């Protein structure tokens, strides 16, 4: 009797572990599948391309920690850095979506990944989600007042901002 | 005897089901927790994010100015109805109707000035190549008209690059420039 119960426990545990693995896999897939829609940028007065290398250096200086930015098509950005969690410093990957809202750049946190576990933004505390808005705010704040944003495009080597001149404001 | 055997079989199914249900819960929650902890451990021992490799052939910055934008800037700075045409081979032509009253003529004459863009050391340099007035070589007054304005354009171009360098927080090394039929661009990378 006990042997059959133990066997059941073993089979159940294996099934449970398998289900947990499937759940984590689906979670990671769902987190990674969120993509933005990039509107084809119209012809602009000025186009400014900035490399991922320069932006990584700038962001590292701003955040005072080593940080690597990787750009992908459709406004997706992956930020890799170490964060302190309970005395440990795991490498964390943050998936962000950069997009235009009117003439402003906005960024939204899509997912957070550590090791092989990815969590969607909806599962994360609000203060972490709010951090995802900072890159967009920083880009918008750097925009010269004489220009307005007409388009934004991300590619593996960096980001291109397309600007229209609205005139001298100095 | 028969009842005892039936009882024994149903007990086995009961124990087995109970064990299976317990195992399922244990596997789901315990396994999930174990996987999360393993993942966290993996993330802790993972190498720190490596800085991006130094840009080889690629540039860190590329600024492209369109012909319509250049036209607006030139019109604003010259205060004349000037037309800029971006030409291949790093050349620009500026056409305008010049007032010939300084030459003693009460008319406007079409003037076309050809400029060349070059990298001179670490600065952009626009230089006057030729000025034509209806196909003839321009008088010195007209040459002065353009030559007087070229340093201002050069200063503005290089100031824009300096502002970009300040925004990036790193000195820039100009690596190239180019033109096509519709735009002019300049490329730079961060100084090592």
What keyword list fits this structure?
heterodimer; A: 170 residues; alpha+beta; 4 helices; 34% helix; elongated; B: alpha+beta; five-stranded antiparallel beta sheet; three-stranded antiparallel beta sheet; 3 helices; 44% helix; 32% strand; rod-shaped
Characterise the protein shown here:
Chain A is α+β, with helices and mostly antiparallel strands. Chain A is elongated and about 85 Å long. Chain A has a 5-stranded antiparallel β-sheet, sandwiched between helices. In chain A, strands 1-8-7 form a 3-stranded antiparallel β-sheet. Chain A contains 4 helices and 8 strands; from the N terminus they run αβαβββββααββ. The longest helix of chain A has 31 residues, at 2-32. Chain A has one domain (34-165). Chain A has helices spanning 2-32, 52-63, 126-131, 134-142, and strands at 46-51, 67-72, 76-82, 91-101, 104-114, 117-120, 147-155, 158-165. Chain B is α+β, with helices and mostly antiparallel strands. Chain B folds into 2 domains: 1-44; 61-190. Chain B has 3 helices and 8 strands; from the N terminus they run H-E-H-E-E-E-E-E-H-E-E. In chain B, strand 5 (123-133) and strand 6 (136-137) form a beta hairpin. Chain B is rod-shaped, with a radius of gyration of 37 Å. Chain B starts with a helix and ends with a strand. Classes of the chains: A alpha+beta (170), B alpha+beta (192). At the A-B interface, helix 1, strand 1, helix 2 and strand 3 of A face helix 1, strand 1, helix 2 and helix 3 of B. Strand 1 (46-51) of chain A pairs antiparallel with strand 1 of chain B.
């Amino acid at each position: 009797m006990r042997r059959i119960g133990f066997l059941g426990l073993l089979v159940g545990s294996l099934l449970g572990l398998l289900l947990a693995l499937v759940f984590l896999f689906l979670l990671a897939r769902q987190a990674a599948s969120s993509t933005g829609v990039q509107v084809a940028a119209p012809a602009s007065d000025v186009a400014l391309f900035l490399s991922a290398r320069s932006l990584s250096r700038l962001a590292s200086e701003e955040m005072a920690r080593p940080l690597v930015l990787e750009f992908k098509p459709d406004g997706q950005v992956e930020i890799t850095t170490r964060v302190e969690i309970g005395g440990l410093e795991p490498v964390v990957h943050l998936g962000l979506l950069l997009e235009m809202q009117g003439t402003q750049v906005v960024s939204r946190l899509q997912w957070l990944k550590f090791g092989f576990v990815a969590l969607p933004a909806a599962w994360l505390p609000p203060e972490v989600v709010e951090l995802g808005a900072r890159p967009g705010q920083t880009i918008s704040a750097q925009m010269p007042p004489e220009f307005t944003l007409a388009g934004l495009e991300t590619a593996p080597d960096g980001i291109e901002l397309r600007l229209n001149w609205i005139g001298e404001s100095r | 005897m028969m009842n005892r055997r039936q009882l024994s079989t149903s007990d086995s199914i009961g124990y087995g089901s109970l064990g299976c249900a317990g195992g399922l819960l244990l596997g789901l929650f315990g396994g999930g927790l174990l996987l999360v902890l393993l993942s966290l451990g993996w993330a802790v021992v993972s190498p720190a994010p490596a800085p991006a490799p130094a840009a080889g052939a690629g540039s860190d910055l590329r600024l492209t100015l369109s012909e319509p934008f250049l036209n607006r800037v030139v019109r604003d700075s010259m205060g004349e109805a000037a037309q800029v045409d971006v030409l291949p081979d790093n050349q620009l032509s500026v056409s305008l109707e010049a007032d010939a009253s300084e030459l003693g003529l009460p008319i406007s004459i079409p003037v076309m000035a050809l400029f060349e863009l070059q990298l001179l050391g670490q600065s952009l340099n626009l230089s006057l190549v030729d000025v034509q007035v209806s196909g003839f070589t321009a008088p010195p007054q007209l040459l002065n008209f353009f030559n007087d304005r070229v340093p201002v354009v050069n200063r503005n171009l290089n100031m824009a690059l300096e502002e970009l360098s300040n925004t990036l927080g790193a000195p820039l090394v100009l690596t190239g420039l180019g033109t096509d039929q519709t735009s002019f661009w300049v490329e730079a990378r961060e100084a090592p």
